[in-house]
Amino acid sequence: MTWEILNVIGTIAFAVSGALVAIEEDYDLLGVFVLGLTTAFGGGLVRNLLIGIPVENVWKQDYLFAIAFVVITIVFILPNKWIGRWKKCVVFFDAIGLAAFAIQGANYAVSIKAPLIVVIIAATMTGAGGGMIRDVFAGRKPMIFRSEIYALWAALAGLSIGLGWISGPLSTFVLLTAIVLFRVLAVYFKWNLPQKKRSRKQL
Amino acid sequence: MTWEILNVIGTIAFAVSGALVAIEEDYDLLGVFVLGLTTAFGGGLVRNLLIGIPVENVWKQDYLFAIAFVVITIVFILPNKWIGRWKKCVVFFDAIGLAAFAIQGANYAVSIKAPLIVVIIAATMTGAGGGMIRDVFAGRKPMIFRSEIYALWAALAGLSIGLGWISGPLSTFVLLTAIVLFRVLAVYFKWNLPQKKRSRKQL
Amino acid sequence: MTWEILNVIGTIAFAVSGALVAIEEDYDLLGVFVLGLTTAFGGGLVRNLLIGIPVENVWKQDYLFAIAFVVITIVFILPNKWIGRWKKCVVFFDAIGLAAFAIQGANYAVSIKAPLIVVIIAATMTGAGGGMIRDVFAGRKPMIFRSEIYALWAALAGLSIGLGWISGPLSTFVLLTAIVLFRVLAVYFKWNLPQKKRSRKQL
Hints:
Family (chains A, B, C): Belongs to the UPF0126 family.
Main location (chains A, B, C): membrane
Mean pLDDT of chain A: 83
Order of helices and strands of chain A: HHHHHHHH
InterPro entries (chains A, B, C): Gly_transporter
Structural class of chain A: mainly alpha
Organism (chains A, B, C): Siminovitchia acidinfaciens
Transmembrane segments (chains A, B, C): 6-23, 30-51, 63-79, 91-110, 116-137, 149-167, 173-191
Oligomer: homotrimer
Low-confidence stretches of chain A: 199-203
Largest interface: A-B, 41 and 38 residues
């Protein structure tokens, strides 16, 4: 049940973020649909691969495709000034997708009794897949490698699930909200992690 | 039988398109072979993943590797003026690969009794995989996201198969030819789909 | 046994090469870990996909994650002048990963009695996966498509294994050392393969 809801939330969020990136890049009508669907189901594909769900199961989720279609259509026909107003739109929806799929990855790792470090990495990689696919296809450097702390929030989700702090739908929902909040705050306040100091091109 | 022929056609076409892109990018001898093989079998890998065929089965298709090798060798030794004459070569072979794998994706979706929208998306994503891998590895923006209508033809293949209009090898062959024709015409006449109007970088 | 050792060697080598590329690109602390882990386990994921090992098995290799973590941490805290001194560091560790995974791919292909050409291609593609993922995510053109002979060494590993010249851990280790040596020499002396002569952008 929780799995199913996270799946729907993550898929919708990645679909919206893909469609918004496509509009930013001036793709045409079909390009918006293709990048939206690729991001949503590409993210799910990476998650399925990493946690051993047969990839072709994706085609049995009819309702998810229908929802993604409707959502992308809404993004496409929304007046520009609405989208312009939510300057952080892509970041926001990407954060939701990241959080939803990261929690699924961590839950899977816990279910096979993986040690803590594996739970953390599973959360990070499962969550980051959709955004990576979107950014690579749009010819951008994946968000995860740009500054403003991205993977850390997924890793913290993995940590809290791995330590057994999260159980049941309610605390899962609180965790999801917290990850999205911290990610958006990190972008808003331009939080950054330490870098290894070196002059570029020195190596 | 039809599956096998489409597989051979799609693999050869993607091998040629990969080799041509590698020559365009001034890759060396091995680069041409590697991008040709990566495009051909990467496209098949994406298709296998999406429709649940074990990926490692690819290694059992000895004859396909042999054919791909011969085809890439021919592309490499062909005189430049021949290649120069067929300016649309990459587009043409890419279109054949797109059509062949799109039909396989749609047929699979129909075989599991997926609803129409799923058949259409399966056709598009299965068909687009090879070209996406080629373009990402060559550092280009994937064709599917550039203008001149790309995914639409794969989607229409999915629609016609999903509606049951296509049955038997003959109508499949007609459909394949029609997709390639429309795709080439779209590039030739620079057909475009509507874009969401907005000034770039406004978001 | 040999499999396990090659797995450890390849994973460590790709982890180091990913971390070094991330430092070169001025990624932050987490970026270095994410690109290191993505390269190491992405390479293993491609290998597992291609030779039919369930991808989710990756999460059962606890010790590998621990080793990769330690190794990336060491790379991060090493003084810059050390890294600067080994100018070919990325090339060197990438070559080790390439060689280790190429040998695994070739051994698998031999084990299913694939013909020689398939063994050669399996070696090349299995070996090249990690580096391709690293370079695509770092926004670089994959090493395999730049000059100075890359895929050839993996292909030769495939050839020697396919011909049955390599048996037992000792000769495998000699082969691995030879591939790394030739790759590094190729970069050092700027060996190149023939290119198809044509003026760029002519096509």
